[in-house]
Amino acid sequence: MADKLWGIFCHSSSQGGRGPVTVMMEGELLSTREQVFTEISGLSLNPDLRSVSSAEMDPVLSSKPRFHFDLWLCFTIQNWILDVGQPVAMILLPAGWLPLNRPSISDYLHFLFAVSAPLLLLKMLERSPRKLPRLAIHLSIISVVMGTSFHLVADSITRRLLLIGYQLHLPVRENPLMQELRPPSLVDIFELLFYLDDSLGHLMWYVPLFLILFLFFSGAFCHRKQEEKIPPAGWMLLAPSTAYYWFLITEGQTFILFIFTVFAMTATVMHQRRRGLVPDSNGLFMLYSFYGALVLVAVWVAYLWNDAVLRRKHPGLIYVPQPRAVYTLHLQNKKT
After folding, report:
1. Torsion angles phi and psi, residue 74, rounded to 5
2. Are 109 and 89 in contact (CB under 8 A)?
């Protein structure tokens, strides 16, 4: 039977005609072509499928942007009460309330800050449209916890040194308190202490912080048609947020990290504008806070530019005096 069919097909082909097998094959090809065309047409005309594909291509823009007031409010309250409140409590509260060999009020605030800061950063990562790999998140949080722990121990000892005459506006070896230590090699131990506080601890805490802030900002964009403004509640938080970043730069000595973050944010805005995207309300809030803090730092540096004593502690091109050093130099003696 197969031989007969093959003979009929060959005979038809040799005669230029259309045998039954040829007709059958052409029919299958036509039906397959029509099925593919129908599927392609349905894909191009179905708005649901187009929206899914666009959401997969650009997940940052798949949801309508909204201002995260609760997140920024918690961030502001934590920073002002638990971080800025530490030196304020040391200055305002009497030193004799608690013995020197027990944690002070400032230390308890620092305890709470070391716990709440990683939790808030995790919440910010959850809200961010841009996602980090799980390993990077774990390493960032571990670094933050270790950095705040170094900072906690070193700051606790520094506060007690201030109570017995240590002067923050002077380098470690030039402090009269350190010059009286015996044996003199003990000064090396205190230099290690301040290294763990001002250098290593600050890097382990502030590098992940600015990276997470920049990651959150890089996803805070929307289409020009969806352009938003900062709500009134956001304007209320803008001033304390700006002032806190000023405190973070000056007291934490993070000017280099901060200025690189500002440059990266500005470059991101310029790049996204070419794609037709603009910062949403969260992005504008962060931009205004960072730019405002930069202005405050410039005013602060200009006001103290000719202070010869502070320049001995901050030699070199980058000169950003610490507020606590200014307090011990210019205000502490007037208070006493």
Report:
1. -60, -40
2. yes
- What is the C-alpha separation between 141 and 317, in angstroms, rounded? 32
The pLDDT-based confidence of 282 (bands split at 50, 70, 90) is very high
**Rounded Cα–Cα distance for residues 261 and 244 (Å):** 16
Query: Tens digit of pLDDT for each residue in 79-118?
Result: 999 999 988 888 887 666 777 778 888 889 999 998 999 9
Query: What is the pTM (predicted TM-score) of this model?
Result: 0.76
H-type alpha helices, the chain? 2-14, 20-45, 47-57, 69-77, 85-92, 105-127, 134-163, 176-179, 186-195, 202-218, 232-252, 255-274, 281-303, 308-313, 323-326, 332-335
Question: How many whole angstroms separate alpha carbon 324 and alpha carbon 167?
Answer: 10
DSSP string of 107-135, one letter each residue: HHHHHHHHHHHHHHHHHHHHH-SS---HH
| Model confidence pLDDT, tens digit, residues 122-152 | 999 998 888 878 888 889 889 988 888 888 8
